[in-house]
Amino acid sequence: MITNAQRAEILVHALPYIKKYDGKIIVVKYGGNAMINEELKSAVMGDLVLLNTIGIKVVLVHGGGPEISEMLNKVGKKSEFVNGLRVTDAETAEIVQMVLAGKINKTLVNQLQNSGGKAVGLSGMDGHLIEAKVKDTKLGFVGEITNINIEPVTDLLEKGYIPVISTVGCDKKGNVYNINADTAAAKIASELSAESLILMTDIAGLLRDKDDESSLISSVCVSEAPQLMREGIISGGMIPKVECCVEAIRQGVNRVFIIDGRIPHAILIETLTDEGIGTMLYGG
Asked: What is the pLDDT of residues 229-251, one digit of tens each?
């Protein structure tokens, strides 16, 4: 329990950050354990509504890998991955569309509204928001983004809504593509010239020692990223994630944060406090 005086002190300390972000756009990529755990999910939705209420324009981009795998298991299809990307045949693409654009997207919209916010769900197919082509024939309908039509998102932001975007893309022939959520969030943030892109993950951030969370690297200049890759500090699945961050900053996003989505209110801690959490990437 905290006192009323402590509550007031918290608001006073948050005020400079509220002013800093007033009217600015934050893109949040959401997935992993923070999406699976219902208590964490409720906290995340409440945090996003709070940010929106104090004048920050919030865009939520979500994945849903675990739920896709669960649905594939139910229909007797085995999940296969190559370099962290799900091999996606035509049937799997339909299931991805159903799970992401249907169940998960509408559940998140409903939870945001139940938390007092205004939200509208979009898939990358709506208004051809995310146009894509085949990334690699070996991966099937895994998409490489060719274009972002950002108008549906900006229209919603102008009306005070939180756009909730599922990462399903399309091409002009009507093919549906499974799009990596980190990549989609980075591209959308770039098109919006967002103040910040926040990637919620299942780890503390970028670690010097992957087995030691106390070795967290709190900030990284994008010019340092190649050296960190050569040293093996950025490795495995973190490589494409960091590459997305670097590209977003080079395309005009001010800051990118990789934060631990397992921590309650991680977004508020990162956005509205002095210390923050996770790893911040910046230009230079």
From this structure: 999 899 877 888 899 999 999 99
